[in-house]
């Protein structure tokens, strides 16, 4: 039992290091290897696979869906408002599979049960009051239940940043295509083909837009769906500019060029704002971490000399 906690800590830290190394170096290396290859269409994600946290685990997804199915068969379901909110978060996170919501509910239940069992095994021979141990197990089970929500929120935030980072490159290419005489649908298709390697998330959304328009959906509704799926303010502004230009019959290229200038100005202002806040944010690290080290290095030798020479002389022991 004494070795269980160090072993769990070692596995946890090792897993974090492996995930970080995979996402930081392996995925980036594959991207750089594919830069010289001709860009092709994006391969669709299989419908029965639910990617969670960046890795596809078919058995875990099926198990989670089975658990959620058993829960639904017991007539225990979430309210419609909560279900709609979770569906919107899943769409914003890039999970568009039909079983994504069921897999999320199943993962929440599996996380709660696994965390509760692990804490019960740890607290089996541990000391302390039974009420406190029961409270620790309950808090751990609640944390395991909320862990998929935290992972999903992290995924949504990261995906929004990626979409916002990819939008300027796509916007420049859309302006070139629009000024060359291409329609919006054709421009989006060209952008999704050319930028598929470096900006996969945005190209997936543009591909969905072109697929909806090809299926017979009106351009306005497809653009609104694009803004709703991404939930990114910059893309919502971009969609508003395109819809306004399409509604009033103005030049899409000129409207997008003006919007691109606005985005560059806004980005510069945000960068200047962050740079102005650096001085204030550095006060606390300097005060709590850097200044004690400097005091230790500069004043420490003098304090040692005083303790060694002056204190014995004052106390008469010299």
Give a written overview of the molecule.
- By secondary structure, this protein is mainly alpha-helical.
- The protein has four domains: 1-32; 46-161, no CATH class; 166-276, Up-down Bundle (Receptor-associated Protein); 282-315, no CATH class.
- It contains eleven helices and two strands, in the order H-E-E-H-H-H-H-H-H-H-H-H-H.
- It has helices spanning 4-33, 58-73, 80-92, 100-122, 130-179, 184-194, 200-214, 219-230, 233-248, 252-281, 283-315; strands at 51-52, 55-56.
- Residues 39-57 and 73-78 have low confidence and may be disordered.
Question: What's the structural blueprint in terms of helices and strands?
Answer:
Elements: H1 4-33, E1 51-52, E2 55-56, H2 58-73, H3 80-92, H4 100-122, H5 130-179, H6 184-194, H7 200-214, H8 219-230, H9 233-248, H10 252-281, H11 283-315
Antiparallel strand pairs: 1-2
What's this, in brief?
It is built from eleven helices and two strands, in the order αββαααααααααα. With 318 residues, it is an all-alpha fold.
Features:
two-stranded antiparallel ribbon; 1% strand; mainly alpha; 2 strands; flat; 4 domains; 11 helices; 318 residues; 78% helix; Receptor-associated Protein
Number of alpha- plus pi-helical segments: 11
Largest sheet: 2 strands, antiparallel
Instruction: Based on Cα principal axes, name the global outline.
Output: flat
The percent range for strand residues is under 5%
How far apart the termini lie comes to 54 Å
Summing up helix and strand content along with how strands pair, one would put the structural category as mainly alpha
Radius of gyration: 28 Å
> What is the string of SSEs from the N terminus onward?
HEEHHHHHHHHHH
